[in-house]
Design a protein that fits this description.
Blueprint (H helix, E strand, L loop, with lengths): L23 E8 L8 E4 L2 E4 L1 H12 L7 E8 L3 E8 L3 H5 L1 H4 L5 H19 L13 E5 L2 H13 L22
Antiparallel strand pairs: 1-5, 1-6, 2-3, 4-5
Helix pairs in contact: 1-4
Amino acid sequence: MPYDPQVHHRRSIRLKGYDYASAGAYFVTLCTHERQSLLGQVNEGEMHLSAYGVIVRACWEDLPRHYLGLELDALVVMPTHVHAIMVLTQTEEEGRATAAASARYPLSEVIRGFKTYSARRINKRRDTRGNVVWQRNYYERIIRNERELEAIRAYIESNPAQWAQDRERADREPEPGPVP
């Protein structure tokens, strides 16, 4: 189907005018395609990674080797999604030299690289070259202060214990609708 702007449009959730290559902390959530329980399972409030979940965690932890000025903070890999905090930093050299600063990558590029690399490794492992692993977009939130950072860290840490109440679980029975 050819591109049709009436059909193929997405409302951006990005903050208008914000430079997502700016130094700062970001809370990100990435979901598996169609919320497939691909990355493991939660038993008694603890996350147990599948082989694919192990790949995802390893790819995530490898990101700073590929992206200048990236630091990783909290991470949880859940059966259908990943929550994480990443920090884009600015070195003294970058602050002084515009050429070095231009070598930095925006948040979207880091996420694109992670999704591509992890999907390739997962598909190689399951012998399904080219299969979609991740949803098309991702959620991000700019973390504005230390209090917010601590609250998000606590949320990430407690995510497996809250799994039974997660409305987005793929294995959850649909809630009954209104009686006609």
